[in-house]
Write a structure and sequence with these properties.
The protein is of the alpha/beta class. It is built from five helices and five strands. The protein is elongated and about 55 Å long. The N and C termini lie far apart (about 40 Å).
Length: about 120
């Protein structure tokens, strides 16, 4: 029986780490045990790492980081969010309480500062 665990990783390399972790869990338990969750945060829209039998990458039936439940895309252009936060702070109180959107929007070059559509 596995202990309740949340494995969170950030960046492209973590996809490989989570794919190997997932493979090891399947090898040991035949499934992802209850209470164990994997989460990848990255600026790429979809995970690409797969791990097959015997740890070989790309084998058919390989373990992958699941796009629906184990991968979160962290991207977009924060400039548009900053406008929304400035104009509607009541809609984003969790951000408006610490993010000075007005100052950010007045900063020279703000349009490209937090633009993750082009990668990190």
């Amino acid at each position: 029986m596995a202990r309740p665990t949340l494995v969170v990783g950030v960046g492209g390399t973590v996809q490989w780490v989570l794919a190997h972790t997932k493979k090891n869990l399947f090898d040991s338990y035949g499934k992802i045990p209850e209470g164990v969750r994997l989460l990848s945060l990255d600026t790429t829209r979809a995970p690409s790492a797969t791990v097959g039998g015997w740890g070989n990458v790309g084998d058919d039936g390989g373990r992958v980081v699941d796009l629906g439940s184990e991968h979160v895309w962290v991207g977009g252009d924060a400039y548009d969010y900053a406008i929304s936060i400035r104009d509607r702070p009541d809609k984003f109180p969790h951000l408006a309480s610490w993010f000075d959107a007005d100052w950010f929007l007045r900063t020279p070059g703000a349009r490209g500062l937090l633009n993750l559509t082009i990668g990190a």
